[in-house]
């Protein structure tokens, strides 16, 4: 399964100049846990970072910083954004997430433009359905063999 087929295409983004308070408000408004920081806010959104609710709590609030004054560009880790291509498989994406210890990954096209975001919460239900189908297949195979011997 290609990640581009299962990622969420509706992505909440903010420019690097936006404040952390703005990002938190967007997260609350959209019931999400991350905002993708983009270089440009137009149709050619190039991801440069991701800010999560945990980043806000740990990097800003717990450090005593003012969320209304700190910009997203000040808290993203420059040059460390991990993305996956929309043509990546679920397995390849999980490998990247595991290797990097991340739960969310921006999905980009061949030109590096943001097309979606995928999280472990999006992948888990699909994997559990696939594993259930494999388990059912094994049970059906045993039943078929038993019936054939009767």
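^ Assign residues to that structure.
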């Amino acid at each position: 399964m290609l990640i581009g087929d299962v990622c969420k295409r509706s992505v909440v983004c903010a420019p690097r100049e936006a404040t952390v308070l703005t990002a938190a408000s967007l997260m609350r408004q959209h019931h999400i846990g991350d905002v993708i920081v983009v270089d440009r806010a137009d149709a050619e959104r190039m991801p440069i970072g991701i800010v999560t609710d945990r980043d806000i709590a740990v990097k800003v609030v717990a450090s005593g910083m003012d969320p209304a004054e700190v910009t997203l560009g000040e808290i993203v880790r420059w040059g460390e954004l991990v993305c996956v291509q929309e043509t990546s498989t679920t397995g390849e994406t999980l490998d990247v997430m595991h290797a990097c210890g991340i739960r969310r990954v921006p999905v980009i096209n061949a030109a590096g433009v943001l097309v979606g975001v995928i999280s472990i919460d999006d992948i888990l239900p699909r994997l559990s359905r696939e594993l259930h189908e494999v388990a059912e297949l094994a049970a059906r195979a045993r039943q078929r063999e038993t019936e054939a011997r009767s």
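The two ends are 39 Å apart (CA to CA).
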